[in-house]
Design brief:
The chain has 362 residues and is an alpha/beta fold. 37% of the residues lie in helices and 21% in strands. The strands form two sheets. Strands 3-2-1-4-5-6-7-10-8-9 form a ten-stranded mixed sheet, sandwiched between helices. The protein has a two-stranded antiparallel sheet with strand order 11-12. The chain is globular and about 60 Å long. It binds guanosine-5'-triphosphate and magnesium ion (MG).
């Protein structure tokens, strides 16, 4: 593990820990990482594990109880600090639906923020077949995580598995897809190509990024650049918009045969498809050993309404949080003059999809 890196991969919860370790395997190289769980059985052999909620949960996990996971994490989140020495950007991987993934992620992101460390959160959402309780668990923390983190990717498992049917293969594809997004940051920094994005530039870029979507495609052959753009434009992972795109981060990963004209095709194609007047950053990765003869393009689209949505440009100085309408004024409809029905600080007279910023597909 590279203990000096300014970037840390942090897996949270049992499945978050599993995916973080899968990302590590997919990357195949030094990558600084830590994992945190309330379940001691996830600890593994190395010293990268942090047990959360020791006294409250005695290392047994939160059993799907998001409130007890959050309380347990609140008590013990400082345990993470020993893993954060010199960290300037944290990439958090978590799976929403259980207790710890949701409850502890929120506390971890708040802790990172308190220490001045920007965070990018990749959070999977449960399969539809997992049922309403797990869906509700996930929905209940999405907007809170979004408010506390600098950039968030919510990734429905139903989409991540890319049509795989056998469970084992489905989980492998889900991990591979998450890995293609997560590792982009390390590849851009550690294997820069002609167009370099260093750690500080990425840090500034994600500081006000907000909610994002991403997709990765790999192509080969003489028309590989145009085919990559075409596949990204049709990608289901980039399809569901919550709000207009505000900024784009594009990574072009290839071996020594990457052509300038290919970079041009990709830059033009992505901008034409996703917004010509939005902030656009492109970095290239030159990694002959991994991408020889192949071209991989990762497109990350960030929506309006991210942290400090009013900032003039991505990369500008950041301050403040996302502007939300004041509590009590949002979507109360015909309950406007009625007494508030509060539960855990939420106004239950406001429809759930508005409280949790969920866009309905009609
Ligand atoms: N990608 C992936 N997702 C998984 C896997 N196992 C579970 N999940 C997802 O992760 C969600 C959270 O499950 P867990 O990680 O077991 O729960 P937890 O966060 O550890 O929470 P508690 O065990 O309740 O403390 C589930 O609802 C699933 O959607 C896995 O092996 N891979
Ligand atoms: Mg668990």
């Amino acid at each position: 593990m590279n203990g000096d890196s300014p970037m840390l991969l942090l897996g949270i919860g049992t499945a978050g820990t599993r995916i973080a370790r899968g990302v590590l395997r997919a990357f195949g190289e030094n990558l600084r990482y830590a994992v945190a769980d309330t379940d001691a059985s996830a600890s593994g052999d190395g010293d990268e594990f942090v047990l959360l909620g020791g006294d409250r949960l005695s290392g047994r996990g939160a059993g799907g109880d998001i409130v007890s996971a959050r309380l347990a994490a609140e008590d013990s989140i400082q345990n993470l600090d020993s893993k954060l020495e010199g960290v300037r950007l944290a990439v958090v991987v978590t799976c929403l639906g259980g207790g710890t993934g949701g409850g502890a992620t929120l506390e971890a992101v708040k802790r990172l923020s308190a220490l001045g460390i920007p965070s990018i959160v990749f959070a999977t959402l449960p399969f539809m077949f997992e049922g309403e309780d797990r869906q509700r668990n996930a929905r209940g923390v999405m907007s809170m995580i979004e408010d506390a983190a600098n950039a968030t990717f919510f990734l429905p498992l139903d989409k991540l598995v890319c049509g795989a049917d056998v469970m084992d293969e489905a989980m492998r594809r889900a991990t591979d897809t998450v890995a293609s997004g997560v590792t982009l940051f390390w590849r851009l920094v550690e294997k820069p190509g002609y167009i370099k994005l260093d750690a500080d530039r990425i840090r500034r870029l994600v500081q006000c990024a907000g909610r994002g979507r991403f997709a990765a495609v790999t192509t080969q052959g003489p028309d590989r650049a145009a085919e990559a753009v075409d596949a990204l434009v049709r990608s289901e992972m980039l399809a569901t918009a919550q709000a207009p795109v505000r900024s784009v981060l594009c990574g072009v990963l290839a071996g020594n045969d990457l052509r300038l004209s290919e970079i041009g095709t990709i830059a033009d194609g992505i901008q034409q498809a996703f917004g010509e007047h939005v902030s656009f950053d492109l970095g290239t990765v030159n990694d002959e050993a991994t991408f020889s003869g192949r071209l991989s393009v990762v497109a990350m689209l960030f929506e309006s309404g991210g942290r400090d949505a009013g900032a003039a440009s991505v990369g500008g100085v950041m301050s403040g949080r996302r502007q939300r309408p004041a509590k009590g004024t949002l979507g109360r409809g015909r309950f406007n003059n009625a007494e508030r029905t509060e539960w855990h600080g939420e106004d239950l007279d406001v429809p759930t999809f508005i409280r949790h910023s969920i866009t309905l597909d009609f």
